[in-house]
Amino acid sequence: YDAMSSIELMDPHMDAGMEPTCPLLTPDQLPDTLTGHQLLDILDRMTATEAAWFDGSPLAQTLFTCLYLHDQCSYIQDEVLHAFATCLLKSCDIARQTILTGDIYEEEDYVHGSSDKFDLLSDIPEAQVTKEAQEVEQRLSARVKGLKLAIKNGGEFRETAGMVPCMSAESMEQDLLCYEQLLANLTMRRAILTGGSHLGKPQCKGAKSAAKSFGFALQQLEVVWAGRCGAEEEPAPAEAGEVGDKKPAVDKMSDDNLPPGFDLRLNRRMLGPSPPRTVGIPSKKETYRRLREMLEQLEVVCTVEENGSLDTVQRFMREFADMGANIVVRSWMRCLVVDQWRVFGKHPLDQFIWQQLQTNFKFPGEILQIPAVPTLMTAITKVVNQWFRIMCLNPGRQHYSLAISLRDWTLLLQDSEYVDEMVRVGLEAAQMPPVAVHGLSHWVFQQMLTTVQLHARRGVELELHDPRELQMVYWYMDHFLRMRSQVDSAVLASVEALTVSKPQSSSSGGTKKKTKSKDKAKEKSKDKDKPAKSSVEQHLNEAYRLLLQCLFWITSVLDFGKQDLRSIPFG
């Protein structure tokens, strides 16, 4: 079903096409030995097909167009290729399990039905794959050291039993470059596998180790980039009316220029009337650019636990949603930030939210004894959990889901206003000190404004509006920010007034009490003259408001040819 739900007809996701006239590649047609350059071309192509799979194409048309990856890599005779291929498949297996666990994928992100039928070495332990890769790395490193020593001394190269076999008969300098690239590729792939294994540990226990592994993989990727992409030309600039990021370089290879072991028709065994419609495989430079971007984003994901409050986690998630990460990175974020209703797998989400409310509004713990408060907190917890999931969706689905979340926050706003009144009455009946006025409804209103602001931004980024509509969209975005600033100021003033009005115990005599009361009156008069405190986020919102107002006037000139400064529509 997933493969037949594509947006447009003739899309490769819907119908891969068949061509029965050409025979398929068989294991006996694979070469017995591979040169170093052939091996590097195979590794580049494997990495490119992996990037295409992360981009939403099925396994049958990406990774498993390589016969070497079938039947648990049993057709591979070269030890370097076998170690690289097993690390690649095992890391893809971890990625697939993460995608299924996160459950945030859409049809354009991941092809679920057909991709689950291919063997990604799920029954082989990760430690076994890593151990094999480390042994091959040692043999490659021994050959690299031997070549460097021979070049330095100007003598002959001496083979030893601890080295990988010779793969080329070129000069020692060329051989050294080739083996260094093979070593960097294999080390990078093992580091990616190790990072994914660490990141999968419960309660974010392996996040720091995973960050180190991904950082090490980035270092090795720079070596690969210098050797494989350094001499390539930069992509041509985008044509008029075309955005460069929207159409990345793809490689439409034919059967004539594919590396050994690849066949575009390998998984199309049924007869059909049309030639195969292959998916776009990214070019070499585009492949490694995507891989670098993914590793950098995974390093960011590993730092999510450093945010200790709900406000900082939400700010972190909003920034993460702007990164444009692929389905693997977004699934990792979804699995780490809230796991089984626990933040980072440790803190219950409802308690995490309540701690933020207590920090913002100085709520006493006795409020939870009012019957309506726990019911409201349960409803808020469900909406916040769904909000975290929405932040991990792709931009299109995120825009749609934010509109649904906005309706949920609107209903919560009505309930929170009623609960605020219940809290006031309950505290008065218990003769307890009052709390911040309308604290719960203020916080829910803040969340609602943040949601509607994100929804408007996604609409602009996805180009869903007509150019003549952008002016009003910018005005509404500025309006939402102005309302948010007003609400924040009101909340801050309410909390400060509550703090000042609290009675302070004293053990001194009557004269001292009189002097203290005079001092308090002076302090109050001074506080009135002081400007209201502003947070960093409020200053950023003001800067963002100025930007939106500038965009409003620019679109006014572009759409109508003039701007009327006599009536300024901003508050």
Largest sheet: 3 strands, antiparallel
- Beta strands, count: 5
In percent, how much strand structure appears in the residues?
under 5%
Q: How many distinct helices?
A: 16
Low-confidence stretches: 232-247, 504-515, 523-532
Q: How would you describe the shape?
A: elongated
The ordered string of helix (H) and strand (E) elements is HHHHHHEEHHHEEEHHHHHHH
Describe, in plain words, how this protein is organized in 3D.
This protein is mostly helical and 571 residues long. Helix content is 58%, strand content 2%. It contains 16 helices and 5 strands. It has helices at 36-54, 79-102, 112-115, 126-153, 172-199, 207-228, 284-301, 310-321, 327-337, 349-361, 372-390, 395-429, 439-461, 470-501, 510-529, 536-560; strands at 250-251, 281-282, 338-339, 342-343, 347-348. The strands form 2 sheets. The chain has a 3-stranded antiparallel β-sheet. Strands 1-2 form a two-stranded antiparallel sheet. Strand 4 and strand 5 (347-348) form a beta hairpin. Helix 12 runs antiparallel to helix 13 (439-461) and helix 14 runs antiparallel to helix 16 (536-560). The chain is elongated. The model is unreliable at 232-247, 504-515 and 523-532 (pLDDT under 50).
List keywords for this structure.
571 residues, mainly alpha, 3-stranded antiparallel beta sheet, two-stranded antiparallel ribbon, 16 helices, 2% strand, elongated
Summarize the structure.
This protein is mainly α. The chain has helices at residues 36-54, 79-102, 112-115, 126-153, 172-199, 207-228, 284-301, 310-321, 327-337, 349-361, 372-390, 395-429, 439-461, 470-501, 510-529, 536-560, and strands at residues 250-251, 281-282, 338-339, 342-343, 347-348. The strands form two sheets. A three-stranded antiparallel beta sheet has the order 3-4-5. Strands 1-2 form a two-stranded antiparallel sheet.
